[in-house]
Amino acid sequence: CTAFTKTNNNNALGYGYGYGYGYGYDKNKVSSTEQGDEVSGSSSNSKKLKIGIIGFGNFGQFMAKTMVKHGHTVLAYSRSDYSRAAHTIGVRYFSDPDDLCEEHPEVILLCTSILSTERVLRSLPLHRLRRSTLVADVLSVKEFPRSLFLQLLPSDFDILCTHPMFGPDSGKAGWGGLPFVFDKVRVGSQPERLTRVEAFLDIFRDAGCRMVEMSCAEHDRHAAGSQFITHMMGRVLEKLALEDTPINTKGYESLLNLVDNTARDSFELFYGLFLYNKNAMEQLDRMHWAFETVKQQLSGYLHVLVRKQLMLETSSGNDNNNTNNINISSGDNINNKDTNNKLMLPSPGISSAKIVPPVQEKEKHDLVMLNGSKR
Ligand code: NAP
Questions:
Q1: 366 in the same domain as 218
Q2: Do 23 and 155 fall into the same domain?
Q3: Neighbours of 326 (CB within 10 A)
């Protein structure tokens, strides 16, 4: 019978680090990592683990490099044949998941795409693993793997949900100071289980990551408002095919970098961020609302400008006792050629509808005559 501990905390992303140390851990090492110090690869005294990575694509290989560097034994399995890449990194590659599981890795780390995770997990020969195996994941959404694991994994397995919030691009110069989110969803209370989960987390602590312990639900709320928006903006800007110019500002350079960074991730990853985070749709709606609001703000200013021009024309007409005087309220003579030439009306490409403020706004203003009709 296994007793489980559930770490409960309400840390916000980026604030506070609920380390929850178990057995045999040096407090001094915690403060070193808290300060974001980079610790060289093999300096950790943590227990060395045998880690089986499932999904050995872009991110799986990226994880493996640091794990090998830290002295852990890494095995890998993927749908495609990555035996050469594995050999280069120093990883034992398996083309059959049964063979990998029969090696009894202490940790199984799922690095599969969000969309394929359920299928992959269901197809794994879990019965070949040790009963107390620790299963972890790196998916960029967290509530989904959490509930999948609780549903599909034997109750003896420990569960650790993680999200290294960096990738092969942003983390290529080292992981120092980069956020690593984790939730100890289910960890048995026996010392060896606590030691094992901490040894796994030490890989990231020792690399200098900013460790953020947070519930999966909280992660998804924060990630939809930050990561999904980042990817969404990158994808939208990519559609504009922005070009390098001889007069790039720093702001523009950062936009180009954003496009570059997000475009390198697979579309499947982006789609997963949207489909498997229940908060993403709300953020998409908010982005749409924000775009429309700013657009209407601009149109609103244009509207005021046009109205001012009309008023000026009207008052100067009055002063001069001009017979071609514009009557704003009735719109008489709005098509008068002399008057029209003086108005700063939008170019023909911009339809008059675009400079009309939204319904609520419109009610607040006087009616303005444009192109001879009431708007
Ligand atoms: P990805 O496109 O999200 O996932 C690629 C991986 O999924 C490959 O290992 C691929 O295996 C496997 N896969 C895809 N479809 C599959 C299927 N139908 N059956 C079996 N395996 C399948 O790209 P990624 O960047 O490598 O990301 C992997 C995971 O890391 C994702 O869950 C992502 O959310 C997470 N993550 C990524 C980053 C990042 O910066 N890229 C950062 C943090 C977390 P094969 O290559 O063998 O086909």
A1: no
A2: yes
A3: 22
